[in-house]
Amino acid sequence: MPKLVVQNLAGRQVAVVQGQTLLKALQAEGIDWMHACGGKGRCTTCRIIVQQGLEHFSPLTAAELRYREKGRLKGNERLTCQCTLESGDATGRVPKQTQLPHMQYSELES
C-alpha cells in the first residue's frame, strides 16, 4: 500500500488505500488538514507541496488543471482532495499559508 510522509508534521506516515484521496487518507489517520471548500476542488487550501514521488500520483484532475493554468497551483503541488497515490510512496509538506494554528509543524525547510 502506498504511503505519504508529511515531512513537516514530524515525518508522519499515512497509508493511502488505492483510490482514496490523500485528504481522506489524512483524515482517516486523525490528521487535521485545511480544506475550506469541503474537499470539492473549489479552492487550493488543501494543497500539498510534493517533495518526492510526484510520479506516483494520479493524473491531474480538471480542477487541478484549472488552478495550474491560473497560476494558483505550482508544478510540485497537488490538491489533496483530488489526487491519489497510485503506485508508490511520496513525501510532501503542508504549505506555510495553510498550516492550522493548533497543529505543530517543523520550521525546517528541506
UniProtKB/TrEMBL annotation:
* KW Iron (keyword) present: yes
Superkingdom classification of source: Bacteria
What are the 2Fe-2S ferredoxin-type domain coordinates in residue numbering?
1-98
| Disordered: annotated segments | 89-110
- InterPro entries the UniProt entry points to: 2Fe-2S_ferredoxin-like_sf (IPR036010), 2Fe-2S_ferredoxin-type (IPR001041), Adrenodoxin-like (IPR001055), Beta-grasp_dom_sf (IPR012675)
Gene3D superfamilies from the UniProt entry: 3.10.20.30
Which key words are in the record? 2Fe-2S, Iron, Iron-sulfur, Metal-binding
A Pfam family found in this protein is Fer2
CDD domains, alphabetically?
A: fer2
For activity, the cofactor(s) needed are:
[2Fe-2S] cluster
User: Per the similarity annotation, which family is this?
Assistant: Belongs to the adrenodoxin/putidaredoxin family.
Supply the name of the protein: 2Fe-2S iron-sulfur cluster-binding protein
**Organism this protein belongs to:** Pontibacter ruber
The beginning of the lineage is:
Bacteria, Pseudomonadati, Bacteroidota, Cytophagia, Cytophagales
